Amino acid sequence: MFKRFMLIGVLVITVGLTALGGAAAGGAAVYYAVKNNAPRQVAAAQASPSQSPSAAPQVISPADIQTAVTDSVAKASPAVVTVINNLSNGQKASGSGVIISKEGYILTNNHVVEGQRKLSVVFANGDKADAALVGADPFADVAVIKVGGAVPAFAALGNSDMLKQGETVIAIGSPLGDFNNTVTVGVVSATHRTIESDNGYSMEDLIQTDAAINHGNSGGPLVNLAGQVVGLNTLVIRGSSSDQAQGLGFAVASNTVKAVSDQIIRQGYVARPYLGVNWQAITPAMVKQYNLGSQNGILVTDLASGGPAAKAGIRSGDVITAIGDIQIEPSRPFVNALLQYKPGQQISVTILRQGKTMNLNVTLAERPKA
């Protein structure tokens, strides 16, 4: 479960390390670019073929690497802001964000702006401005806010699919809400991580990094050596009280951030598919008690009147085992499976009813706005 510390603007997960599975080197392409004094061409270097085995090994000096880091920070840091959330309950929270356009659009986390009554930002140069919420998506933990007038700088989004394990990355943000534009450096520990959230959802395609991320860093950028934003810092794992962990930070991949933020900027929200069922995840106890006939899936407990599921003939007591060709199982919960499709799309839903397997065609609707 997520434990949210809104007063200091970070998302923290407290779990036993054994529940996380395995932890995380393609940084050679990055360092090759650095050695050739081309830190801003890192993405191109990563996409190029490997050097011939007969080529002489590159000797990378600490000065080369330091220059790449400082150049990237100089490029991205002016676009980083501190986000101040004056909550509707009268309290104040803070997080981080990054400006992504000259029009004043700023990326941050949904949990940074939740419960907002009034938003403002502090720019890297210390100037302040009021901000308005454009829209937010709790599933991706991404939000877009906007300021009026001129902005000091804006950062470019990079291609997170090109990230390699071991590649150097930089986190920039405002830990504790007081230390604006703090820079920490680490590596990509792993990509495509999945972390269990609440409401039957798991955040997918997260970037794991050991760059120090603290309270208040949420919403700040994770930057590559080309000065591009490749992730949006969103959570840390501290471990259990008896087994503390360090260096387990996670960021929403920039390709996910772009897909979500583009919709928010265009229409103010993210169009999510809607099936129209209330449900419970299948547990071993439920299988035994109700003789469900499946170890995986969800039990339909109620349906929205006139919703997609009801129109398709799904009933209370049915067990949904697959959405389209995606099986519902612990590694792919129901909500994640549903989110692979779009509103208006017709899909086949596999159900178990009184021991019989059935496939019903459902036309998904758009999830009602809260």
Key words describing this protein structure:
24 strands; Pdz3 Domain; 8 helices; 17% helix; Thrombin, subunit H; 370 residues; elongated; alpha+beta; six-stranded antiparallel beta barrel
Regions with little confidence, pLDDT below 50 for 5+ residues: 1-54
Q: Strand fraction band?
A: 35-45%
Mean pLDDT: 83
- Total count of domains: 2
User: How many strand units?
Assistant: 24
Helix segment count? 8
Question: How does this structure look, described?
Answer:
This protein is an alpha+beta fold and 370 residues long. It folds into 2 domains: 1-48 and 61-270, Thrombin, subunit H (Beta Barrel); 273-366, PDZ domain (Pdz3 Domain, Roll). It contains 8 helices and 24 strands. The strands form 5 sheets. Strands 9-10-11-16-13-12 form a 6-stranded antiparallel barrel. The two termini are 22 Å apart. 42% of the residues are buried.
Q: How would the blueprint of this fold be written?
A:
Elements: E1 3-5, E2 10-13, H1 28-35, H2 42-47, H3 62-76, E3 80-87, E4 92-99, E5 105-108, H4 110-113, E6 116-122, E7 128-137, E8 142-147, E9 168-173, E10 182-196, E11 202-209, E12 221-223, E13 229-237, E14 239-240, E15 243-244, E16 249-253, H5 254-267, E17 273-274, E18 277-281, H6 284-290, E19 298-303, H7 308-312, E20 319-323, E21 326-327, H8 334-338, E22 346-353, E23 356-363, E24 365-366
Parallel strand pairs: 2-13
Antiparallel strand pairs: 1-2, 3-4, 3-6, 4-5, 5-8, 6-7, 7-8, 9-10, 9-12, 10-11, 11-16, 12-13, 13-16, 14-15, 17-24, 18-19, 19-20, 20-21, 20-22, 22-23
